[in-house]
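Pasting as-is:
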Amino acid sequence: MPDSRFFEALGPADLTELAAIAGAEAPGGAAGRRIATVAPLDRAGPDAVSFFNDRRYADALRGTRAGACFVRPEHAAFAPPGCVALITGEPQAAFARAANHLFRERRHPADAPALHPEAELEPGVVLAPGVFVGPGAKIGRGTRIESNVVIGPGVAIGRDGHVRPNAVISHALIGDRVRILAGAVIGEAGFGVAASQQGAMDLPQLGRVILQDDVTVGAQTCIDRGAFDDTVIGEHTKIDNLCQIGHNVVIGRNCALAAQTGLSGSVQVGDGAQFGGKAGVGDHLVLGAGMQLAAGALAMRDIPPGETWCGVPARPIRRFMRELAWVSKMVDRREGARNGDG
C-alpha cells in the first residue's frame, strides 16, 4: 500500500467499475468484489489488482495472491484460482489507469499558508523567506532551510540538516545531518511509460525516497522516488552536482558519485562504490561493494565487487588497457607500412 503520508487512497472500488475505467473486460464473477490498492504480482494481496504482459514471468502470475490482474486474452489461463483475469490489449496502461483511480498525491492546498499549520517543526529550525512546508511535514532540530525551498506534504527531515535555495523535496524520508544543495529535486516521479491506443502514458510512481544519515546531494541533482519500492541512498554517501538517480535505485553506504553520473532504474550498488564523472549505468544491474566505474564509462552488465571498469561498454580496466595497447600497436604498424610504401 502506498505511504499515506504522500498518497491519498480513493478506494476501494468495485472491480467491475474499476475494469471499465481501466479499459478492460471483467468476467461476470467480478461483480461485488472490492479492490483497494495496486501492487506487483509478487506482493499483491486479495485486495489488490496487478498486471501481466510478459510470458517469461508466467510463474509469477500463477503464484500471485492478487485479487485481480490485467492480462491479454492469450494469457488469461495463467491466472490462478481466486485471481480475476481482466482482459485488455494493454495490461500495463490499464494498470496505470486503475492506479490513478485508486490513489492521488497529497498536495499543499493553494489557499493554505506557506508554512502549513499541520507541519511540525522542532525548536531551532531556521526557515528563510519563501520556503513552503506542506501538511504533515516534519523538520528536526537545528536544520536550516534556505530561500524558496519547497517541502511537500508528509516529508520528514532529520536534525542538523541543511537544504540550500530552490531545492524541491517530496515523497521523502531524510535522516540527520543531510545536506541538499541548491536546485536539487528529491522525490519526483521516476520515468515509467506504458503504450496505449491513446499514445504513451506515464506510469504512476507510488514509492518514496529514503536518504539516510550524513548523505550529501549535489546541486541540480535529481533523485526519483520509487515506482513501488523505495529509492534508497545509504549513510555517508556523497552525490555530486547534476547527477540522475532513477526510481528504485538502492545505493549502499560510503559511496561517491561524481558529477553527471546517471543510474537507471532498479540499479543496486554495494557499499563503498565509486563513480567517475559522466559514468552511466543501465537498468536492473548489480554493482558490487567497492567497485569503481571510471569517468565516462557505461556499465551494461553487472560489475563484481572490488573491480575497476572503464570504457564504453564498460569492461575490466586491465582488459580495456590490453585492448587499447593492441589497437595502438595495430595503428602504429599500419602507419609504418604506409611510410615504408612511400
